[in-house]
Amino acid sequence: MTIDLDLAGLSRRSALKGWFAAGSALIGNSILSPVSYASDRTLPATPACGEDIGPTRAMTEGPFYSENPPEKRNFRTDTGGTPVTLLGYVLNAACTPIANAIVDLWHADSDGRYDNQGFNMRGYQRTDGQGRYYFDTIRPAEYAGRTPHYHVKITPPNGRTLTTQLYFPDEPLNELDHLFDSALLMNMHPASDGEIGRFDFVLA
């Protein structure tokens, strides 16, 4: 029996605990549902890996990347802003999870500014044994010529790095941003204390 949760009534922390601990028997068909292809089975590389056919699309790194970011998942202590828990899977082309992949995230703050002197709004983590990652961060603001977005680098063990960007649905500036790609839209859902964003990366 599955139970569809009303995530708007849950905190981000409670929803995250459910995602890690409960599985589909409790969280039904919500944004947190485990993907059917994230299993020990080897499946063909088909659209079953997600709505976007094929690997996650690459995107420019941009001018604000800083080398050697710290290992951290909590950006909420860096600045204020609307809380967002960003989570998902890292998968290979056969639709199986990639453990110990490095997920490197950086983005602007709630005023549209990047910290180019330190590592606020910057950090990386490694996926767990089921290929899962999550960050506690904020919704970044737009800045000149750019709609709100996250920058991400995904590096699997002994593999090639994917550099890309993630976008928010229903942002008025999306269509005005020359880099915007609808294939890189996150699945966003309100929580009682902010938002939950979901994006699963499929590596070539």
TrEMBL record:
SUPFAM superfamilies: Aromatic compound dioxygenase. Residues 61-182 form the Intradiol ring-cleavage dioxygenases domain. Keywords: Dioxygenase, Oxidoreductase. Pfam families: Dioxygenase_C. Residues 48-78 are annotated as: Disordered. It comes from Thalassospira indica. This is Intradiol ring-cleavage dioxygenase. One of its GO terms (molecular function) is dioxygenase activity. The lineage of its organism: Bacteria, Pseudomonadati, Pseudomonadota, Alphaproteobacteria, Rhodospirillales. Belongs to the intradiol ring-cleavage dioxygenase family. The keyword Oxidoreductase applies. InterPro entries: Intradiol_dOase_C (IPR000627), Intradiol_dOase_core (IPR015889), Intradiol_RC_Dioxygenase (IPR050770), TAT_signal (IPR006311).
